[in-house]
Amino acid sequence: GHSDYCGPHHITDGVLFGMGNPLLDICLTGTQELLDKYKLKADDQILSEPSHIPLFEELSNDENVEFLCGGATQNAMKVAQWMSKKPNTTVFMGCIGKDKFGDILKSKAEEVGVSVHYQYHEKEATGTAACIITG
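Given the sequence above, the corresponding structure tokens read:
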């Protein structure tokens, strides 16, 4: 059969819109000592507590850190964006803090071609998730 699809140049900017809770994923290959310092266990997931706040800063200052834009909807926009092979075919909206993690998140989302339009909160911090790989 004949297909009318002629490639990514026929995809309209902003054709797919998503709205959700954006997160900055902070990923690093770490050590057992790092896990022990923050009373974390390997192969586990937790909701962070006030005692973990310094962990995010420590990870983000490591020269080997990898920042990724995350959150379920924003991840879906990244995949759709990658599939389209044309920048700005996906648009994402969500709320982030006016902080360095929000700046990094915006940069990482735009780097993969997602057009982001965040609402900025004056008092709340940007949502973050830490991933420490030890194996």
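The chain is about 30% helix and 25% strand. Try to locate this feature in the token string yourself.
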